């Protein structure tokens, strides 16, 4: 039995990761403040927390950790906690960037007093947003392309900058405290219980309203989507392998790049809603294409994604059909 810490453990990816570790017999420690845009204390979470060997610390990581249930030795610490949501990049850029950096600093200050065998930091493909606008990004994108933020004046970069600072802190925490560390850059992970701020649940909600008008913001833009079950397998493989120590690795599905308008059409088709699409154009500094090169992840861990986009969308739509009024 291993001791596993997951910051952001009640969120979309965090809870699925916690379920995985609990299923294989590990003790799981979750830290989260239940920030309303990233996590919900719903029935699924409530039932999971009732399990033996599951411990929950309701804590705001913008403050230093004081009283806690976390042991002095951890086999792995996953740092997933962050404020996210593309609309929040623009609405609360200062708070988002500030809080995400504080969350990482305070967690690592705490972990510096704990013996950690492996640290996995969750970053984002948003670190490439500035480079894409300067034509520095190849598609599929590997981990070695430049990370560039042209100027600090665009609110879009509030999240990407905070995650890149977190990467820097992670690797230097690793050096200072001799903790093997991996940084993963998520590329459009989706699935049930991911809230309503991201593109797929947003489109599902629009399609379920049966409105005849479906508004898009950048229909020609493309993204490569990765189902959450595949992402959890990839993350756990990164955590278990010493080959991934001190590496930056993409977690995503490079075979599933699709235009936003085609994605919307598939979702509407599955739900059975015929609509007219209207494109308002992409917001400022939106990325035209995003698709990861995951060959390094596959080479080091053997990971291969298994869930086709259509199947993942069907499962996600089924969940939202049953839970469409849960918006806490």
| Low-pLDDT ranges | none
Overall form: globular
Tell me the total number of β-strands.
16
Terminal Cα span: 34 Å
Mean pLDDT: 93
Largest sheet: 7 strands, parallel
The H/E string reads EHEHEEEHHEEHHEEHEEEHEEHEEHH
Lateral arrangement of strands in the main beta sheet: 3-2-1-5-7-8-13
> What class do helices, strands and sheet pairing give?
alpha/beta
Radius of gyration: 19 Å
Oligomeric state of this protein? single chain
Beta-strand content: 15-25%
Q: Assign a percent range to the helix content.
A: 25-40%
Please count the helical segments. Answer: 11
Question: How do the helices and strands line up, and which of them pair or pack?
Answer:
Elements: E1 3-7, H1 12-23, E2 27-32, H2 43-49, E3 54-58, E4 73-74, E5 76-79, H3 86-91, H4 93-111, E6 115-116, E7 119-124, H5 129-133, H6 157-177, E8 181-186, E9 189-190, H7 199-208, E10 213-216, E11 222-224, E12 226-227, H8 228-240, E13 247-251, E14 257-259, H9 260-271, E15 276-279, E16 289-290, H10 295-301, H11 309-323
Parallel strand pairs: 1-2, 1-5, 2-3, 4-6, 5-7, 7-8, 8-13, 9-12, 10-15, 11-16
Antiparallel strand pairs: 11-14
């Amino acid at each position: 039995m291993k001791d596993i810490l997951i910051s952001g453990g009640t969120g979309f990816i965090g809870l699925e990761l916690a379920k995985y570790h609990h299923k294989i017999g590990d003790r799981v420690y979750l830290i989260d403040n239940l920030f309303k845009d990233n996590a919900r204390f719903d029935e699924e979470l409530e039932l999971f927390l009732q399990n033996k060997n599951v411990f929950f610390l309701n804590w705001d990581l913008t403050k230093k950790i004081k009283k806690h249930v976390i042991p002095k030795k951890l086999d792995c610490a996953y740092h997933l906690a962050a404020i996210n949501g593309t609309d929040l990049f623009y609405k609360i850029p200062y708070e988002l960037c500030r809080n995400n950096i504080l969350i990482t600093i305070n967690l690592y200050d705490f972990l510096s007093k704990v013996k950690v065998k492996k640290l996995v930091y969750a970053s984002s493909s948003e670190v490439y947003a500035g480079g894409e606008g300067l034509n520095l990004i190849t598609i599929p994108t590997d981990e070695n392309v430049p990370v560039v933020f042209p100027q600090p004046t665009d609110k879009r970069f509030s999240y990407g900058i905070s995650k890149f600072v977190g990467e820097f802190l992670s690797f230097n925490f690793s050096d200072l405290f001799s903790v093997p560390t991996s940084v993963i850059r998520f590329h459009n992970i989706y699935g049930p219980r991911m809230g309503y701020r991201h593109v797929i649940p947003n489109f599902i909600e629009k399609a379920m309203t049966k409105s005849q008008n479906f508004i898009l913001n950048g229909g020609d833009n493309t993204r490569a989507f990765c189902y959450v079950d595949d992402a959890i397998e990839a993350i756990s493989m990164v955590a278990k392998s010493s080959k991934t120590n001190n590496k930056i690795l993409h977690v995503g599905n490079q075979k599933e790049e699709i235009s936003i308008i085609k994605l919307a059409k598939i979702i509407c088709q599955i739900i059975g809603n015929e609509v007219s699409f209207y494109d308002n154009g992409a917001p400022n500094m939106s990325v035209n294409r995003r698709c990861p090169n995951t060959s390094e992840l596959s080479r080091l861990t053997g990971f291969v994604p298994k869930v086709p986009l259509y199947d993942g969308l069907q499962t996600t739509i089924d969940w939202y059909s049953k839970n469409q009024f849960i918006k806490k």
